[in-house]
Amino acid sequence: MNILTDAEKLAELDSDQLHRLVGLVEHDDAADPFPVTGWDAVVWAVGNATQAAQLFQAVYGMELVAYSGPVTGNRDHHAYVLRSGAVRFELRGAVDPASPIADHHRAHGDGIVDIALEVPDVDRCVAHARAQGATVLVEPSDESDEHGTVRTAAIATYGETRHTLVDRSRYTGPYRPGYVVRSSTPVRPDGAPKRLFQALDHVVGNVELGRMDEWVDFYHRIMGFTNMAEFVGDDIATEYSALMSKVVASGNHRVKFPLNEPSQGRRKSQIDEYLEFYRGPGAQHLALATNDILRTVDVLRARGVEFLDTPAAYYEDPELRARIGEVRVPISELQSRGILVDRDEDGYLLQIFTKPVGDRPTVFFEFIERHGSLGFGKGNFKALFEAIEREQEKRGNV
Ligand SMILES: [Fe+2]
């Protein structure tokens, strides 16, 4: 039996639902040199955390649960902790101009600084990571308050991104010591869904040209991850740009990291564009799992979220129609919303991508509804890239 994380229990998810949503599988932690229970939080550094927190509540339907900032004695920055199902975001924005968050934002724009992971044994993970040559940014230590103790450490990954390792098994507070309970004030309109997404499926990293295999090796060696799928070269090449992508996953498949590097195209690829505007490697997109992507897209679009356009030709292509077969709704329902569909030997998935969430053409979201398929939409990469390239062209970055 898989142990559920506290966030999953709070979200009233069970193992079966998580299997359907994100492909959770059984895994024996005892034999794993670096056992990972699941996602802890995705930590963002943004230009205006106060407004971003409003956006993620009012538009994305997330719930504010905890806060740290000047009124709690943290004079450096605001930090808002939001949840939707088992997904947790922490949004940090500088108050003090000397804050490292201000430096990060100046260099990278709005971005993800930390993909924090829940682990059962911080010290064991750090010992293994160090022995394998990882950069340990923060040594294991305890933080305590009246709710108990959280043990954390942090290791470096691509670019300026880190993985904080969190053991919260002895903690009952809202997030971590130093944060206070804070609740959402927006009221959910009548008939609005309780939440628009339930779990985090995968986080994609864009890494330097020619270094994808090094980062794949990093996750194998340091964190005991295994390969899930591999997309190389022609599979995801368009006429002008291409990328190489490999996917690594934690033992229980909760944590999945596709890693992309640019590959030679005739023009600048979308990965090159990301690397240029993010000023280096970083997290490219977060895939949020939903059990009703049609409703999620309808609600988000009504609230002003913009998605990538999918050409009509995508839905009308007879080859694609034949490959897709039967899905739970008529293709016209997908076409009217621009939702993509892909199928493999295990089943199918529905997915859609937003436009970049910040001011730079860097980080964006994917929404994904899985029906057996444990893939990442390989068959859609080409259609997606062509759509992204049309946007890139409008921005003049080709
Ligand atoms: Fe994805």
TrEMBL record:
Enzyme Commission numbers on file: 1.13.11.27
Signal peptide limits: none
The entry's keywords: Dioxygenase, Iron, Metal-binding, Oxidoreductase, Repeat
Annotated InterPro entries: 4OHPhenylPyrv_dOase (IPR005956), 4OHPhenylPyrv_dOase_C (IPR041735), 4OHPhenylPyrv_dOase_N (IPR041736), Glyas_Bleomycin-R_OHBP_Dase (IPR029068), Glyas_Fos-R_dOase_dom (IPR004360), VOC_core (IPR037523)
Class of this enzyme: oxidoreductase
Lineage top rank: taxon: Bacteria
All copies of domain VOC, residue ranges: 38-168, 199-355
Coiled coil ranges: none
PROSITE patterns in UniProt: VOC
Known cofactor(s): Fe cation
Gene3D superfamilies xref list: 2,3-Dihydroxybiphenyl 1,2-Dioxygenase, domain 1 (3.10.180.10)
GO molecular function terms listed in the Swiss-Prot or TrEMBL record: 4-hydroxyphenylpyruvate dioxygenase activity
Pfam families tied to this protein: Glyoxalase (PF00903), Glyoxalase_4 (PF13669)
Entries under NCBIfam families matching the protein: 4HPPD (TIGR01263)
Family: Belongs to the 4HPPD family.
Name of the molecule in the record: 4-hydroxyphenylpyruvate dioxygenase
